[in-house]
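pls ignore typos typing on phone
iron/sulfur cluster + seq
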Amino acid sequence: MRYVEEFRDPVAAKSVLKAIEEVVNEIGATPEKPVHIMEICGGHTHAIFRYGLDKLTPPGIEFIHGPGCPVCVLPMSRIDECVEIAERPEVIFTTFGDAMRVPGSKKSLLQAKADGADIRMVYSPLDALEIARRNPDREVVFFGLGFETTTPSTALSIQQADRENLSNFSVFCNHITVPPPIKVLLDDPHMVLDGFVGPGHVSMVIGTHPYDFIARDYGKPIVIAGFEPLDLLQSVLMVLKQIRDGRAEVENQYARIVPEHGNPVSLAAIADVYAPRPSFEWRGLGEIDSSGLRIRDRYKAFDTEAKFGVGYGAGDRTIQEPEGCECGAVMTGRIKPFECPQYGKGCTPEMPLGALMVSSEGACAAYFQYSAAEDVA
Ligand code: SF4
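k done
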């Protein structure tokens, strides 16, 4: 198949759904005893609900929505630090739009902007570099946020700033990595996970081998998937077949995009610019070893934390989530979004209480957008 439409073909989808049903029956999965498949990536969560795959697939499959939405897993304390940095009079704070409405303990970046902070939405860190070139008398901070998908572009912007000796540009680095939280979830005795649908875009950068431990050490299948309905259905079928056959392998359904060994240019930029932090705090998961990236000392001049004395190492900033917010339980698959007491009441896309309702990749936003009416009732 070569074109997007072919990955949305209803006739092909029906035939894959029939095959899924057969394998679910062979496994003996039922609504009372379902197969638990975690889609790690928030983009996949969104696609599952957008195309109604949760309803098209047999009830013997339960999708668990993983922690793969970078905005959603960012703890409140980091948003507070963003606001503090952005409210400095010398700073122009630049960020992707998704992060603007994430609540901090006092205010979001959007509210800080309304209060007068110079906060600008950008589509790329290169936009922030351009703002820095045009405003030599201001400090331009880029909010570096995201998994391995966005980590390389931030690295390239730092390398470019270094080449240009752009001394008024820095990055508030909150980049995180996918494999460590999967290990935490697999080590959690309360989690029941039978297999994974692996993230497509992240894997385009890191390749397939960083997931080897899931199959080798935990005996669980994982299939790296694309984002169209047939991609996801085929990946679910591949996971189910592994479970039925007693196999645990890393398979690559998204081979048209994901190379086995990743993207060498991106990996080189990541290795040059970042080093792992000893640990990093994740909303709902707590501190996870080696799950966050910091900017290497060689590029210290472009590190907002070093420049302004904020962030990790600048004191314990752990902040409790608002009362009644169950983001952590949703993110670890313990409850569905509509089981949160705030869902659709104190927390809506217009007035989000938790980050999962803000980002388009957040599980609560996906539920609300595609199945709100029946779930809120
Ligand atoms: S409904 Fe809102 S508060 Fe509840 S888990 Fe979802 S985002 Fe968090």
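The CA atoms of residues 186 and 354 lie 25 Å apart. The radius of gyration is 21 Å. more later
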